[in-house]
Amino acid sequence: MNNIIDYIDWRGDLTFKQSGFNEVDNMIFSQISYLNLGVIKGEMSIEELGQRYEKEIKNRNITQSSYITSLITRIEKMFMKAYKSNRFKDVLVSDFVNKFDEINESQFSAMTFIIDEDTIYVAFRGTDDTIVGFKENLNMSFSAPVPGQIDSVSYLRGILNKYDKKNIIVGGHSKGGNFAVFAVSGLTQEERDRISIVYNNDGPGFTEKILNSYGYKDTVKKVKKYLPKDSFVGILMDDEEEYIVVNASGASGILQHDGLNWEVRGSEFVKRKSITEKSQFVDKTVKYWLEGLNKEQREAFVDELYRIVKKSTNANCLNDISENRLSATYNFIRKMTNMDNEKKDMMQDTVMRLIHSGSEVKKEKKERKKVKRIFLSKSKL
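The chain above was modelled as a monomer; its predicted structure follows.
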């Protein structure tokens, strides 16, 4: 199956003047935003950054392997091809911001790609390897806005003030897609009118408060949302964005969440008619579950889960847990067992609600099939 790396092999000889910006380019810039490119003084070309970055990774010693390490390595492989291609080498990168705040539970990173004299792509990074980054994801289920979303508006407004471009594109992957949509929705009408397209690549949805805001409703018409066929992340929570389903490899929604696993043909993703039944099941189950929990219950569950993970693993990154998964699992179970009765009851009740939600969705599906069979049998009479 061909992916965005193959796309660079096929079309890397074509500049953006020869072949305009497309949805696959959007994913490539979104993926590059996951890399820590170091200090960027003013505007630096992707070629210059790539040469510097390649020297750094040659001197890097990786002794452990994990999914996160593997993912970054694959993005680096893509970046090495991109910086040597006619299409991407002269694109300028500027305004790289990388913030991490454990106290306020916030992880935020963004960079801007100056494609030509008229076009820029503002990329918001998705969730990184930090546990705080994943905690911020969970916080979005009950808190609006989270610090990273506020930072996204501030960053985008700064870019609009700095650059007078006709074609301003905003995008991101995973949480970065959520931030891209939120950033545009948080602008003034005049500022928002300057944005041409918003790319949300399998990003989660929003709370009801945000969905009901004028800024969000006005932004939706600019959004192109993409989901892999077994989407897990992009279907979480609610949104009003029409989505495009992409064929992807990988046995699970988590693996298909990786943009490097999305199938590419020519300058487009390979499309499917709809997400799979498995993805629809997860979507309904999680929505039923969240609807049955109020804000306080969601917050209590997320905070307690985060506290247990931190105390049982002493980890700052998911990679730390992956490298010590046996001891991390043992300590996690031990901490769960040693919780006081009130917290234990709360955690068990919340998990049981999730299981019950799944059962209700299955029951509803069986009832629909039963009704369909009855209808078909009667129509034959």
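The CA atoms of residues 2 and 264 lie 6 Å apart.
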